Amino acid sequence: MGFGIVIPLLPIYAERFHATPFAAGALIAVYSLMQLVFAPVWGRVSDRVGRRPVLLVSLAGSAVSYVVLAAAGSLEMLFAARVLAGAAGANIPVAQAYIADVTSTADRARGMGLIGAAFGLGMVIGPGIGGGLSLLGPRVPECFAAALCLGNVAVAFYRLPESLPGSVGRAAGFRHPLSLASLREAVARPGAATLLAVFFLVTLGFATLEGTFSLVAAHRYEYSAAQVDGLWLYMGLVAVVVQGGLVGRLARHLPERTLVVAGALALGIGLLWIPFAGPSPALLAALGLVVGGQGLASPSLSSLISKTVEAPVQGEVLGVSQSLSAGARVIGPAGGGFVFHRFDASAAYVAAATSAIAALGLILVGTPAGGEPRAETVRVGRSGRKAV
């Protein structure tokens, strides 16, 4: 929710400091760039010291980033705030590893989906709250976001037990998870390379939509700003429904690989359909396919990726996957925008659909139709006591 409160306001803040359009865009992109670097770091650190302390530190860092943003008196301070926010907010793999620690293999996709649903709900609610708070003063939205993070720290401190099975601190040395040696180890695990590549391609296709859809809706379909905001709200609600409820229900009856196949197929069809749908209910259907496909594929992939390794290093491999996701979110909007500018919307969405279809081909050819890696299940009670 804090992220959703701040993101729509960043271009306005940049404009106050006479930022160029490129600088305003870079202010958004630097967040994803920091996540690319720090997501695997947080994941690996959590494998060594535990999930709980990493979550507490990163949440506190997010609170500080919003305070810095509120106090920013220059463009440089805005960038500093977003660099800190991206580094601290790169804790998604730690949350995913926590879910992997405390869920059975059957329930894991549902747990991963709930993380995505929570984020989607925050993105639906956040912009409206931020817009209302901005009427009370130019610093109020950031201060409210900081208060939310501090509230999160308090809840985690008092209510969140450690989830990592076994002892922590198992290795004294530290090697960056994006080093060549670490990446070789990550992709050497059976099935991991294919799943990581599919995760990157699925995110790349969806990120192209995120970076270009507002332009397509305004220029191709001549929608007003309010109508475009309404479409984004619709997409957020679809994401919440799919990841918060549908994934869990389907995962009880279907293999996660099947959900990834269905998601990638829906994503590809929807992306191809968007530039030809027209300003009609067909556009809503196309967007529903795109968001629904992403909502099916992403948590299912995270669940499958977590099962390629034993519990003590799930944070590391999930961190690598989130780093690839962040890279896709940097490349997708920039590449889609370039193709859109150089050619047209149809070319941009054909390129995005090609990425989704490539993911579909990889998951069909590169993974077995049956059987999934088994993982140790550790359930954590409110007291923090663990049972295998």
Average per-residue pLDDT, rounded, comes to 82
Give the termini separation: 34 Å
Q: CATH class, please?
A: Mainly Alpha
Element order, helices and strands? HHHHHHHHHHHHHHHEE
- CATH fold assignment: Growth Hormone, Chain: A
Radius of gyration, taken over Cα atoms and rounded to an integer in Å: 20 Å
| Estimated helix fraction | over 70%
* Fourth-tier CATH superfamily name: MFS general substrate transporter like domains
Q: Number of helix segments? A: 15
Most strands sheet: 2 strands, antiparallel
Q: What does the overall shape look like?
A: globular
% residues in beta strands? under 5%
How many β-strand runs?
Answer: 2
Strand order of the largest sheet: 1-2
Category from helices, strands and their pairing: mainly alpha
Poorly predicted regions are 373-388
How many domains in all?
1
CATH architecture: Up-down Bundle
